[in-house]
Amino acid sequence: MGTNFEEQFQQKIDQETKIEPKDWMPQKYRHTLIRQISQHAHSEIVGMLPEGNWITRAPSLKRKSILLAKIQDEAGHGLYLYAAAETLGISRDEMYEQLHEGKAKYSSIFNYPTLTWADIGAIGWLVDGAAIMNQVPLCRSSFGPYARAMVRVCKEESFHQRQGFESLLVLSKGTEEQKRMCQDAINRWWWPCLMMFGPPDDESPNTLQSMQWKIKRFSNDELRQKFVNMIAEQVKVLHMTLPDPDLKWNEEKNQYDFGKINWEEFKQVLQGNGPCNKERMDARRKAWEDGAWVREAANAYAAKKSIAS
User: Fold this and answer.
1) Average pLDDT over residues 207-229
2) What distance in Å separates the CA atoms of residue 149 and residue 16, rounded to the nearest whole number?
3) What is the rounded CA–CA span in Å between residue 33 and residue 300?
């Protein structure tokens, strides 16, 4: 019986029919989606922290307004994604608990510090650029709620990337100090951004199954290559360079060759040993604890209203 259901399920996916929350699905499909969507949601929320670090120090009112709007967008993305994950039978509180206990992951990139204002531009251009490369195919994910949430997320992330590039473009045309600051930010964020796509395909245990189920449409290495090809051209407009002496155009493959990624650093960050892992998790736990009274008040109000009606 189970095999028959699985065959019908795979047939729907092969026919590009969206899987909806009440449809039958293999438990592994459900668990894979919960892991991926909750990790994605956590990344949006934790990702607000390195940018929030610069709200009070933005160089102008215009830049502060843009940054505030961007951070607000990220909070919205987290909410869309938590809501999509909830349709799979997991509660938001449970997802938060998994994050706070270290059982659930978020993107490794958010464990790096924002040292200068140029880092905010680099996050917009490089980090959000890498996110878009990964997320646009997710608009065609086989799971309906996830695919639909990603349509709006990608539109807003595309704006964030253009905003980040514009910010770096201004710096790249500024004083020598501003140019150095721009180049330094690119140097520090480039390699961690390449790690964002996840481990190499031969070390990624979930990729093949996720692609068969059309949760993912491209492998980690395919997406990473697309990102390198895009950024290697865009950086020329900034008159800056990428910190990779091995980066060069390969005429035969019609793509850029690039140097080796330090996967040991990636593993260390995932294990909680990155520059800001402890700081990020402490901030999230504190926010949860400080917000307890709001949740209690909301529940009390809902209960009171329910009795009155």
Assistant:
1) 93
2) 17
3) 33
